[in-house]
Amino acid sequence: MKKVKNKNRKKMMGLAAAFGLVTLLAGTFAWVTYNDERINRVKTAVAGDTVLNENWDNPGEITPGMVAKKEVSVTNTGTAPVFVRVSYEEVLTHLVSLGVETATAAPWAAADAPDVPVDFVPSKVATDIGVGKDGYTAIPAAQVTGLPTNVTLWAKGSARKDPATNIVNTALDYAIAFAYDTTDPTKYKFQKVEGTVEVTGGNTDGTVAANWTYTVTAPKYFVYVGGYTTVGFDWAGTNVLLGQGPITRYGVAADYTALAGTPITPATTTDLIPVANGDIKGIQADKVALGKDALKIEYGVDMIDIAGALIGDKWVYNSEDGFFYWTSTLVGGATTEDLLKNLSYGTDGGDPYKNITYDLIVAMEAIQVTKEALTDAAGWGMNTAVPGSQTTKVYNQLVTAGGL
């Protein structure tokens, strides 16, 4: 096991009970548990004695082929040993149309919801409020016949006479978009528009596009029919954050209220379950909702297959309950090896990944090193009634590791 390297560990939710205390209530034990969670957008610590460490290079917006560092481990900052397990909650917001654009004859308006406009980002031709740049000019409406209200034509070009033929050649680059929201004076929102643009006059030798006249015909406005939908997946069914909101965890704001009651969906297929060091595996959200697997998790170098013999100081996944277990006790001052190393976005995502927002919630639980804490309903509630089951196998390994 490695020593603590993360100097920015954060603690949440103080608890008056000291670590390791077992409270006797009505003849049953109330096991003191420790939790921490982090939200990562392409984050459980009660009592502050066991924390989830994360080295997360947040890329903001992901692009195909991008790999973002996401190193996740667990540290026991207390003095008594604990058992540790980790699970995931996933939230994916995606387009109902899976990225398919539909042309309409009229510009988008708020009354068209749930349809949403296909956004046009003018950064190559204009500022955030539509002022032309890099040689492009926002052509005044008086120079454009057939230009609809709030539609802007940006143009760049020149007219030059060929001395050999005496013919004036006109070169034109242009873009066209509809400003559907100008409430923010520093950043307008534009809708993608396509139409036929013709130069109708003024393009004499030596002139530039800013001085010409134009005609725009048959404009088409593009929308995503059905707008957005949000789906949730809870590997362990604990709904740690799903169903909550508005919330903020480690600087990430979210609202998962609509996902209350998300059922347990443990990963059960080989394309999702790491069994060897450095395995790169998929997630549930895009596989189920998009029918794709471009989002991947690269796991650490201390993974073990539950189908084989279990040994200490490894991470093992139990597909019966959806948890990753650290196969040893975690003593005070110690840190597990990394469970996760990187998140990546493949190059073959395509249209379904347009405008997605993906949250990977990593939830940690730690509990006292006793048999009862593992099996009691107030603890982890591990069902060891089935000999040879994955849960029984993990339980036996933890009991052995804890010398119980």
Q: From N to C, what is the helix and strand string?
A: EEEEEEEEEEEEEEEEEEEEHEEEEEEEHH
Q: Tell me about the biggest sheet?
A: 9 strands, mixed
Low-confidence stretches: 1-33, 42-48
Structural class assignment:
mainly beta
Mean pLDDT: 87
Query: How much helix, percentage-wise, in residues?
Result: under 10%
Provide the domain count. Answer: 2
Q: Total helix count?
A: 3
Radius of gyration: 29 Å
**Outline type:** elongated
Number of strands: 27
What is the first-to-last residue Cα distance?
A: 21 Å
Q: How big a fraction of the residues is strand?
A: 35-45%
Structure description:
With 404 residues, the chain is mainly β. It has two domains: 1-15 and 35-83 and 229-404, no CATH class; 102-224, no CATH class. 6% of the residues lie in helices and 40% in strands. The protein has three helices and 27 strands. The chain has helices at residues 284-289, 371-375, 390-401; strands at 2-3, 23-25, 28-30, 33-40, 50-56, 67-76, 82-95, 102-104, 116-117, 119-120, 137-138, 144-145, 151-162, 167-181, 189-201, 213-224, 228-234, 247-249, 252-254, 280-282, 295-299, 303-304, 315-318, 323-326, 334-335, 340-345, 357-368. Strands 8, 9, 10, 11, 12, 13, 14, 15 and 16 form a nine-stranded mixed β-sheet that branches. Strands 4, 7, 17, 22, 23, 24 and 27 form a seven-stranded mixed β-sheet that branches. The chain has a five-stranded antiparallel β-sheet with strand order 5-6-26-21-20. Strand 23 and strand 24 form a beta hairpin. The radius of gyration is 29 Å and the shape is elongated. The two termini are 21 Å apart. Mean pLDDT is 87; it is low at 1-33 and 42-48.
